[in-house]
Amino acid sequence: MDCTFHLEDFTILTDEQRNLLDDVVKNLPIIADLSQADIFIDCLLEDQQAAIVVAEANPRTTQSLYKTSVVGQIAYEDTEPGVLFSLKTGKPVVGSRGISQENVVMQQDIVPIKDRFNQTIAVLIKERDISQEIQTEQKVKTLMNSKNNREKEHLMQSAIIQEIHHRVKNNLQIISSILRLQMRRCSSGEAVEVFRDSIARLSSMAVVHDYLAQHGIENVDAKFVMEQISALLISLSKTPESRLNLSVQGEPLFLPSEIATSVFLIVNELVQNCIKHAFSDHQTGMIEITVHSRKQMAYITVSDNGQGITGMHSKDKSSSLGLQLVELLVEEKLQGDLSFFHSNRGTKVSLTFPIPDKVIS
Ligand SMILES: Nc1ncnc2c1ncn2[C@@H]1O[C@H](COP(=O)(O)OP(=O)(O)OP(=O)(O)O)[C@@H](O)[C@H]1O
Ligand SMILES: [Mg+2]
303 CB under 6 A from ligand 1? Predict the structure, then answer.
């Protein structure tokens, strides 16, 4: 993160105005983290024809749009019209499109920073990547030109659904970054665990919505998504990645999104249990997921080579949620069957459910 001031050569600010900006600069990193966006402060140059970037903060909660620092670089009216408008009029601008110094199309929200005489001395800018939106817009444009009305309607519907999934994913990511920030401030070990579980559940759901946003909802490659979710859960866990060996075996399994979403929630809980309960702190462990289908049935297993389930989980329903949720989803959403096998050499959970006709591959 870089927050540098290069004001002296370019603008005529009083000491008081500089101090005011200094205070805003101190808060840039937290604003960038919370809004999952690159944040900048720009000032108008003396000739009023362009602005200069005087401070910046890149988010730690998502990938930055920028590869290098742009402090000291010039923002022109052609490439960042909203910035110049806000600096000259003192009005905020929301959703203005611009082109970054690194030639990326981005969207800016801009608010003026004013001194006590209500004079605009700089602007605070939030920038985010909109390449996905631009792709969707292009798709919509192409289909608007198509002649076939039914095809048009179908494509339009799927573009809208994909856009909704994209937004849901973004919202889930925002919630999980807020939880992550809160978790860092937490001193109780038990609360940290609860935060960690919730972040993992939300992040898995974000993976699913990201897949649906990119590939549509009709045929979900369940094995591929399970690989992504399990790898994510291991990277989010407090166990070092080198101590958990994960493999996903079997053949691709295509499911409609409604069924796939339940399957992913189940796999999320089962893999999370392997990570949390199967191995003692210093043990190295193996987690394996297998995926098969035969005729109209899907078979999924999640197993580990840990210590096995000690004590029967169903006795204490009040303190645990995971397996209750799994049992509910298997019965209500999948009309499937679940069985547990465990010994002191590990735990294996098998899930079987019927696949609806239209997606059998
Ligand atoms: N793979 C496993 N290896 C060892 N023990 C397990 C395994 N899976 C489940 N268990 C045991 O079964 C219990 C119940 O699991 P469940 O997922 O319902 O609750 P939890 O993981 O403790 O809490 P929650 O899932 O609500 O965060 C666990 O507390 C653990 O003792
Ligand atoms: Mg659990």
Answer: no
Domain ranges for the chain, please list them.
15-129, 132-217, 219-226+233-361
Query: How far does the centroid of ligand 1 lie from the alpha carbon of residue 310, in Å?
Result: 10
Considering only CA atoms, which residue is closest to atom 5 of ligand 1? 309
Percent of the chain with pLDDT over 70: 93
Give the bridge partners for 289, in sequence order: 248, 302
pTM (2 decimals)? 0.64
Cα(88)–Cα(95) distance, integer angstroms: 18
CATH superfamily of 219-226+233-361: Histidine kinase-like ATPase, C-terminal domain (3.30.565.10)
112 pocket-lining for ligand 1 (C-beta < 6 Å): no
Q: Which pairing describes strands 105-114 and 220-221: parallel, antiparallel, or unpaired?
A: unpaired
CB-ligand 1 contact for 320 (6 Å cutoff): yes
Q: Two tokens at 204?
A: 């898995």
Greater confidence (145 vs 253) lies with: 253
d(CA 30, CA 56): 12
Query: How many residues can be counted in the chain?
Result: 361
Query: Please, are residues 322 and 334 in contact by the beta-carbon 8 Å criterion?
Result: no
Query: Does the beta carbon of 326 lie inside 6 Å of ligand 1?
Result: no
Q: Which CATH entry fits the domain spanning 15-129: 3.40.50.410, 3.30.1330.60, 3.30.450.280, 1.25.40.10?
A: 3.30.450.280
Q: CB neighbours (10 Å) of residue 94?
A: 11
How far apart CA 263 and CA 257 sit, in angstroms, is 10
Model confidence band, residue 311 (pLDDT cutoffs 50, 70, 90): low
Q: Could you give the CA distance from residue 229 to residue 223 in angstroms, rounded to a whole number?
A: 10
